[in-house]
Amino acid sequence: MNEASLIGLLIATVSFGALLYLAALGELIAEKAGVLNLGVEGMMAIGAVTAFIAGVEFQNPWLALLIAMLSGALLASVHGLFTVGLGAEQVVSGLALTILGLGLAAYLGKDYVGLRPGAELVPVEWGPLSELPWVGPIFFSQAPVVYIALFAGIAASLVLSRTRLGLALRAAGESASSTDSAGHSVLGLRLSAVATGGALAGASGAYLTLSITPQWAEGLTAGRGWIAVALVIFGAWRPGRVGWGALLFGGTLALKTRLQTFGVDFSPIILSMLPYVLTLLILLIISVRARKRPSSAPAALGLAYRREER
Amino acid sequence: MRKRILALLAVLFTFGMLATACGSSDDSSSSSSSDNSSSSSSSDDSSSSSSSDDSSSSSSSEAAETEAASDTKAAFIMVAPIGDAGWNYAHDVGRKYAEAETGVETAYVDAVPEGTSEFDNYVRDFIDQGYNVIVGTSFGYMDAMLALADEYPEVVFEHVSGYKMNETNFGNTFGRMYEPRYLSGMVAGSATSSNLIGYVAAFPIPEVIRGINAFTLGVQAINPDAQVEVVWTSTWFDPVVEGDSAQALLDKGADVIAMHQDSTAAGEKAEAAGARWVSYNTDMSQFAPAAYLTAPVWNWGPRYVEIIEDAKAGNYAPTSYWGSMADGIVDLAPIASDVDQSVIDQVMEAKAAIIAGDLHPFTGPLLDQDGTEVLGAGEIMDDGAMLGMMFFVEGVIGSTG
User: Fold this and answer.
1) How far is Cα B88 from Cα A138, in angstroms, rounded to an integer?
2) Best interface-test mutation with B: which of A272, A278, A301, A303 has the largest number of B CBs within 10 A?
3) CATH architecture entry for A3-309
4) Region of residue B103 (left: phi > 0; alpha: psi -120 to 50; beta: else)
5) Which terminus in chain A has less CB density within 10 A, N or C?
């Protein structure tokens, strides 16, 4: 293994980590407010296709990213409408959202398959920082979305833990009725959390088509949205831990095929199962520990709230 | 609450495993069935088609034959989206060509996973709608097609890339892709200066291994010092993994990337790194114009015309068709204009020799990866050995799994 290969592995780890982190962070915010959204895969696909289409039509990558985030938020709002507004079963609605999102993305993208990208988000150069050995290429030559993911993670962490809004949001996910009696709108909090989650999943999808593989093809997300859902559990609903988890899972994605070029004969199929096996293990640990102390999952996660109903 | 999370996890796992294990299976739910939506009364269709089929096989009168001709309809079933610009796209081009040439109505459904009942359901649905030629274009459909062919003896089944057949209505079709692969290797061998060529490949099965070996022999015919390093992706179609595998090879120092995959992602990474690219399935030059060198490509149209014409005339007889460059089912796409004319001349000379039968890529002496002789000097490998090929030739870096 030479130095360039190792640096390449770390570049890919950070890049895939950011891809997973954005989507996982969105899911975390929705779940913190008490809404489980299994539609991440669908929202990512919609983000990916709308970003590509907008890139081709308007030739502006930032506008494309914005449109992808809005589309993700819009699709997530469908889930919000059904689960928060009408009290529908969240698991069922989320699964439906994945199927809807994938189908809709395939339909919308039909005429854009095989086209050259109209816009790309190319790596940012940070002047002398990018020239540093190792650190430069790995951290200071990434696409802008990677820095957006980092910023979003810090912002989400601060807002959730340090602000009144964050407190209200978390309260909506722990005990909706007490949030309601405290004068906050559970409906409003949950809907905006779901929409924010959709926007972040959309941004993650946009990262695929604007930077990682600047093309549109059906099936581009290939199950990565599900890894993001697993990451939230893995990271015990904490933005920081989810971030480290994203790097770890991103690393397994990057290692999957690179291990072969390092001369290691190890099945790539087993490596692609690794995120799920790790999540299982973490869940096992959480479950065992939960006998002694309460689980870190939001208490009202997955429960619909209707006033005057218990 | 915990129960709920466990339930969620169960769901998550099922989907996650499906998604990682079989690449495109997760978009099967969104598979787009296209032209066949106009079925008005399917029962009528099927009864009329089967009756006319009977008449065409029992009587040979002109009138009966034209009757049958107007009733022949061909359906194509594909494993990944036809928008992949690769394998499935090439089949769809062939389907359209056959429709234009024969005037027979065709339909397709794509993103149909292998090894599930979904394939059977689509086939039965097509047959109910009166389709009497069924073409399956993925290896994993083979056993399902064999069983269905027994069940519907009046329907013609043709399987692409498999090896099973029956006596009456089930045959298989494939092409000697190793011929143009060899030629594309010659071009790649002339283009490398690091003498390391990367090869992004899907699965270690004989079809893929044969391609890698033929490519490597082509490389060495021009540049004996160059080596070919293989990375297995375990997926036919996942642009992210394909692109990252190409990147891993580029990081290691490869300056030409070849591939046996269905997307164009490897080419985009080669283009970004200033390296060169040998694509596959179709001429993909538009996706990476600077990197593109050439490509071994499929040309399914004429073969599909042949099958449909035979079915139409009622004289379809199953064969194991393994067409060559001379038959036209496989070919080498145009070579990039910046490649030396002397190299192009050499490649064209080799192409003419292969078509004439004077040159066979797998001619001894042939050594495997460990230097053991697998084919003596002057010997030519027989079809059986080629179809079961599970070793790498000397010059390939990697493992056959």
Assistant:
1) 37
2) A272
3) Orthogonal Bundle (1.10)
4) left
5) C
Q: Where are the domains of chain A?
A: 3-309
The pTM of this model reads 0.83
* Model confidence pLDDT, tens digit, residues B203-219: 998 999 999 999 999 99
CB A25 within 8 A of CB A200: yes
Report H helices in B162-300. 178-191, 206-222, 239-251, 265-272
* Radius of gyration of chain A measured on its C-alpha atoms: 20
What residues in A contact B234, CB-CB < 8 Å? 268-269, 272
A192-195 long-range contacts, Cβ below 8 Å, gap at least 24?
Answer: A193/A29, A193/A30, A193/A32, A193/A33, A193/A35, A193/A169, A194/A30, A194/A33, A194/A35, A194/A37, A194/A76, A194/A77, A194/A79, A194/A80, A194/A83, A194/A84, A195/A73, A195/A76, A195/A77, A195/A80
Q: Do A7 and B9 touch (CB under 8 A)?
A: no
Q: Which residues of A touch B398 (CB under 8 A)?
A: 260
Is B240 within 8 Å of A2 when comparing Cβ atoms? no
Q: What is the pLDDT of residues A254-309, one digit of tens each?
A: 988 888 888 887 777 777 787 778 878 877 887 787 777 677 789 889 888 888 66
